[in-house]
Design goal:
Layout (H helix, E strand, L loop, with lengths): L21 H17 L6 H10 L9 H12 L2 E5 L5 H9 L2 E5 L16 H8 L6 H16 L2 H16 L2 E2 L7 E2 L2 H4 L2 H9 L4 E4 L2 H5 L11 E5 L2 H8 L3 H11 L25
Parallel strand pairs: 1-2, 3-6, 5-6
Antiparallel strand pairs: 3-4
Helix pairs in contact: 4-6, 6-11
């Protein structure tokens, strides 16, 4: 059953256009301005190049069609409307079809700094710029096809792979400073600073089996970030026998969590209890 949320995606009209309110456009503009400043010198070059290629409007919420038009030109991807949270099966099917799901609601001002549900700012600002990069786009496409064919149990492990790369991944090329490429970080002002400069955060060289075995929680700053060398590494990883590595990770079992139980439930949240991000 889908997780309950107070947010509902805005429906497009017959021409595919969503009429956002002045208040929603103002929230987008504020988020865009402060996040563009926050990621300066921290985001990877490929993300900043993608941001330039997309030319996202800074003063209003973009329409999905205008983002799709530019993505198609670069890598054949497009953005697909979804009604807020969706099941894993639908999430993987969209990625396998080179469609990135985007809920069209805008967060409220009360949740400007943090919300668990991925809104349109998270999806469009955080994720679509890197979909202009061929390595990242092909990795995401391969990931969707893997997940679509996987069992329910194996999808839980694949969710961790996505979490520690696409959502919360860091990058460090030889001889260069640390950079951010994960959309969950790049769309969050708090997580951007914490992941890049936070002394409490652990940073570990990415190993796919380790990542598959690492528990995570969606409602806290991440205690651990995995670091790749460059985006080509993701593409090369997608050419490996990922499901064989999932089998290996299942046999080894999960690493001990690096965080306390959830205060709301008294237990550690599992990816099985979440919708796809």
């Amino acid at each position: 059953m889908a997780k309950q949320t107070k947010y509902v995606s805005r429906l497009p009209d017959a021409s595919g256009v969503i009429a956002y309110t002045d208040a929603e456009n103002a929230i987008w503009a504020e988020l865009f301005a402060r996040q563009k400043l926050a990621i300066r010198g921290k985001a990877c070059a490929e993300f900043m190049q993608g941001l330039d290629l997309l030319g996202l409007p800074e003063d209003r919420v973009p329409q999905l069609g205008e983002v799709s038009q530019k993505l198609k030109r670069e890598t054949g991807w497009e953005v697909a409307y979804v009604p807020a949270l969706i099941p894993f099966s639908e999430f993987f099917a969209l990625l396998a079809d080179r469609k990135f799901p985007a809920a069209t609601f805008v967060r409220t001002r009360e949740e400007l700094d943090y919300l668990q549900e991925p809104d349109i700012f998270h999806e469009i600002f955080g994720h679509t710029p890197l979909l202009t990069n061929r390595y990242f786009a092909d990795f995401t496409h391969a990931y969707g096809k893997l997940g679509l064919a996987a069992s329910r149990e194996d999808r839980v492990f694949l969710a961790r792979m996505y979490w520690f790369t696409v959502e919360f991944g860091l990058m460090q090329k030889p001889g260069e400073p640390l950079r951010i490429y994960g959309g969950g970080i790049l769309s969050s002002i708090g997580e951007t600073e914490y992941a890049y400069n936070g002394s409490q955060a652990q940073r570990r060289r990415f190993d796919i089996v380790d990542a598959l075995r690492t528990p995570y929680r969606i409602d806290i700053m991440q205690p651990l970030y995995y670091v790749i060398e460059d985006l080509r590494e993701l593409f090369e990883m997608s050419q490996r026998d990922i499901m064989g590595l999932v089998k290996q990770a299942r046999g080894l079992g999960l690493h001990p969590p690096l965080f306390p139980p959830s205060a709301k439930t008294g237990e550690i949240k599992s990816p099985q209890k979440q919708e796809a991000v």
